[in-house]
């Protein structure tokens, strides 16, 4: 691992790195079911099935088989595709819209807000997410996430890990890639950012994973920093 990098801006992956998407979807699903005549649903399995369609749906856009659409659109299409698997095909359009907004109300990890608040004292904090602007803004309001700016897929019209997603963010911040640090719990995200010249920080988030999953539990690249929390990242960057 190299020395602590001198950077001016932090670009954050959001789903899994800053917020607990799996636990939040399961919690919100259980709350949604209360008072409704629905079949029993394993809401953690529901979250996993919904998320499993995330990368394949974006691949259709990345590889040019469909024009760019916001993640809210892809999430809704993916939701419609899994409802029958859980006995929920009778949900109305309004109820499906309500479920789709679960992604706008994901809980931050316990260290996220405090760690980001410390980092923001000295550094620019940018959401570098595949989530669309409205989704990320709603999530920030819900969870108290102190972004300076929301960047990412909708801003440049390209989903990570396309190079233009990372380079477009750096260009809009007016910073060279080497002055930007990509912060993520996912090795493929960091590898793509590093290929574009960004510095890299791996955050361990083992609780993101379903039982039995082993990917992204450990860093697989020579990242600039490896930490267990955003508080530790703030410590390492002198914030």
Plain-language structure description:
By secondary structure, the protein is of the alpha/beta class. It folds into two domains: 9-20 and 106-236, Rossmann fold (3-Layer(aba) Sandwich), CATH 3.40.50.1000; 23-104, Putative phosphatase, domain 2 (DNA polymerase, domain 1, Orthogonal Bundle). 43% of the residues lie in helices and 13% in strands. It has eleven helices and eight strands. The strands form two sheets. A six-stranded parallel β-sheet has the order 5-4-1-6-7-8, with helices on both faces. The protein has a two-stranded antiparallel ribbon with strand order 2-3. The radius of gyration is 18 Å and the shape is globular. The model has no long low-confidence stretch (mean pLDDT 96).
Q: Could you provide a short overview of the structure?
A:
It contains eleven helices and eight strands. With 239 residues, the chain is an alpha/beta fold. Its EC number is 3.8.1.2.
State the secondary-structure class: alpha/beta
In CATH terms, what is the fold-level topology of the largest domain?
Rossmann fold
Strand order of the largest sheet: 5-4-1-6-7-8
Helix content: 40-55%
Global Rg? 18 Å
Weakly predicted, low-confidence segments: none
State the total count of DSSP E strands: 8
CATH superfamily membership of the largest domain: HAD superfamily/HAD-like
- What would you call the shape? globular
How far is the first residue's CA from the last residue's CA?
20 Å
Major sheet description? 6 strands, parallel
How much of the polypeptide forms β-strand, as a percent range? 5-15%
CATH class of the largest domain: Alpha Beta
Q: What is the domain total for the residues?
A: 2
- Please name the CATH architecture of the largest domain: 3-Layer(aba) Sandwich
Along the chain, the helix and strand elements come as: EEHHHHHEHEHEHHEHEEH
- Mean pLDDT across residues: 96
Instruction: Please count the helical segments.
Output: 11
């Amino acid at each position: 691992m190299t020395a602590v990098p001198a950077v001016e801006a932090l670009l954050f992956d959001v789903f899994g790195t800053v917020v607990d998407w799996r636990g939040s979807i399961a919690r919100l699903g259980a709350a949604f079911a209360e008072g409704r005549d629905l079949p029993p649903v394993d809401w953690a399995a529901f979250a996993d099935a919904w998320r499993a369609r995330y990368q394949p749906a974006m691949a259709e856009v990345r590889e040019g088989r469909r024009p760019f659409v916001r993640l809210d659109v892809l999430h809704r299409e993916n939701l419609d595709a899994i409802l029958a698997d859980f006995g929920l095909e009778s949900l109305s359009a309004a109820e499906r819209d309500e479920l789709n907004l679960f992604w706008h109300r994901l809980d931050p990890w316990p260290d996220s807000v405090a760690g980001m608040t410390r980092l923001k004292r000295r550094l620019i904090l940018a959401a570098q997410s595949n989530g669309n602007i409205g989704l990320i803004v709603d999530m920030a309001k819900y969870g108290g996430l102190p972004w300076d700016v929301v960047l990412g897929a909708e801003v440049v019209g390209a989903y990570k890990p396309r190079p233009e997603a990372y380079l477009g963010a750096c260009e809009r911040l007016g910073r060279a890639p080497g002055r930007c640090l990509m912060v993520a719990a996912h090795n493929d995200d960091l590898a793509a950012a590093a290929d574009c010249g960004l510095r890299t920080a791996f955050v361990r988030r083992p609780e993101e994973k379903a039982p039995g999953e082993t990917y992204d539990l450990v860093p697989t690249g020579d990242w600039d920093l490896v930490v267990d929390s955003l508080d530790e990242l703030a410590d390492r960057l002198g914030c």
